[in-house]
Specification:
Elements: H1 6-61, H2 63-74, H3 76-85, H4 91-117, H5 123-143, H6 150-176, H7 189-203, H8 205-212, H9 219-225, H10 229-247, H11 251-269, H12 277-303, H13 310-318
Helix pairs in contact: 1-4, 1-12, 2-4, 2-12, 3-4, 4-5, 5-6, 6-7, 6-12, 8-10, 10-11, 11-12
């Protein structure tokens, strides 16, 4: 057997080196593809979450209005008796108010719901419908004589905050479309930021009330007389989350955690399906209203706290 020449050895070494280099390049390319795939999933997951919240938020927000309009139809005689005997309104005036409330809530809710689920919907019309629901929310305590009911007023103001955030979201989407109409965002960015701020602050009223004086969480005032662990933890958690939302810090996750917790507590606080008949109607009203507040929190999570917020200023300071 003849010994191999140096040329053959060199050729073999070059071949092995080429194979090794190709293998390394292939491994690096595969690693980069895997890293890119993992990174691309982050915005994709965030986008899916935003799309879900943009649809679920308005849907939950209008549930209380649909439920209330259905109650007017189902309990027409009782509602008329209340208007006449308690509110001292005439038959025709009482009937007109009830019919208008049913009409505004049903039509307004369906228009808002259609805009949330159908991308090509007319957002200008949806925004007017949201304002009509906001007007009804303001009139409702006067209509039913609830001006001295602090719990009812706090819930109405909290729901109004969710509706303000809904109008902001609709305006933001409308302004992003070509040829946005006059129902788009206010010309001044500061005006839009104030709308977002007012909605955010009003959305926290119910949680401060429940934490300090609410009958469900026990309220801090009752813990002084009879300390209990679960009501104390609930009250502290409500206050902490509400403060974070009010000042606009870690708003997205605070709103999401509060919305999720609110839905779970809603099932525990207002199980109207198993309540006695004399309490079922009351608990059903509060059950759906609580879900609507959770819908407002979802809108806050997806659209952010606006420019008047601590997290916005912290980001500007870091920049």
């Amino acid at each position: 057997v003849q010994p191999q020449s140096p040329t053959i050895h060199a050729t073999m070494m070059l071949g092995l080196f080429a194979v090794f280099k190709t293998a390394v390049a292939t491994a690096e390319a595969a690693s980069m593809d895997l890293e890119g795939a993992l990174i691309s999933r982050v915005p994709s997951g965030r986008r899916r979450r935003q799309e879900f919240l943009e649809a679920a938020g308005p849907t939950l927000l209008v549930l209380t209005f649909l439920e209330d309009s259905l109650r007017v139809v189902q309990q027409w005689e009782g509602q008329m008796a209340f208007m006449q005997s308690t509110m001292h309104l005439g038959y025709y005036l009482g009937a007109t108010l009830l019919f208008l409330s049913m009409l505004v809530q049903t039509v307004g809710s369906l228009v808002v719901l259609h805009a949330a689920l159908v991308p090509s919907a007319k957002l200008g019309l949806a925004k007017r419908a949201t304002w009509s629901l906001l007007a009804f929310t303001i009139v409702q305590p006067f209509m039913y004589g609830e001006l001295t009911n602090i719990d009812f007023l706090c819930r109405s103001l909290t729901l109004s905050g969710g509706l303000l955030l809904c109008t902001f979201a609709q305006s933001k989407q409308l302004a992003s479309r070509p040829r946005a109409s006059q129902w788009g965002l206010p010309q001044s960015n500061f005006a839009a930021d104030k709308l977002q701020l007012f909605g955010r602050l009003m959305l926290t009223l119910l949680f401060f009330f429940e934490a300090l004086a609410g009958s469900n969480s026990g309220g801090l005032h009752s813990l002084i007389e009879a300390p209990r662990l679960l009501p104390a933890v609930t009250a502290v958690a409500l206050i902490a989350a509400a403060v974070l939302i009010a000042v606009g810090f870690k708003t997205e996750w605070s709103a999401l955690l509060l919305a999720g917790g609110l839905v779970l507590l809603d099932l525990f606080w207002y199980p109207f399906w198993s309540a006695p008949s004399y309490r079922a109607d009351h608990m059903r009203y509060y059950f759906f209203q609580t879900l609507s507040v959770a819908g407002g929190l979802m809108l806050l999570a997806v659209h952010g706290p606006g420019a008047i917020a601590l997290e916005k200023r912290a980001a500007e300071k870091d920049f």
